């Protein structure tokens, strides 16, 4: 490592303290933020694949975190596959995320404004997710130049993305990904407090 890259960091990291879905999601979103803030326009072409991989992977982590936390609120076991390629399919994870939220909406008296806001943000999340469904459904294309057969190119003729268009959508989707569990859990907590006071 060249001296210019060595900073006064704590390079020794206890990885066993980082075994939580939200922590993984948080570290990936921080890495994305740092990459976007500290890179200049001239680096776009050489940073596109790592940036898109981290965005896609952070979305997968966020779905899994939310699903596992939402199942605690819904009382219904989450359907998540942890093995094989299907464990990475964002549309399946989003479907389970929606199922868990719907169970909570159906079984509790959630304010109409919260439901309305969730639906609006979820439509935007769907648009964001679909970009990755098309380009990297199996969480492979942004990591390797060929598909898992070893010969077929990961991207075909005409595959293209405008990163400047995807960044604002990514940033807007962070609200639903970071706060859905808190908002729905807080609704429960507030109802519990009100019941105790009555």
Structure explained in plain terms:
The protein has one domain. The chain has 198 residues and is mainly alpha-helical. It has helices at 21-38, 44-74, 90-107, 112-136, 163-197. It contains 5 helices and no strands.
Secondary-structure map:
Elements (H helix, E strand, L loop, with lengths): L20 H18 L5 H31 L15 H18 L4 H25 L26 H35 L1
Give a brief outline of the structure.
The chain is mostly helical.
Helicity level? 55-70%
What portion of the residues fall into strands of 2 or more residues?
A: under 5%
How many E-type strands?
A: 0
Distance between the termini: 64 Å
Q: What is the residue-mean pLDDT, rounded to a whole number? A: 90
Which stretches are poorly predicted, pLDDT < 50 over at least 5 residues?
Answer: none
Class computed from helices, strands and strand pairing: mainly alpha
**What kind of oligomer do you see?**
single chain
Rg over alpha carbons: 19 Å
Largest sheet: none
How many individual helices?
A: 5
| Structural domains: how many | 1
C-alpha geometry: globular
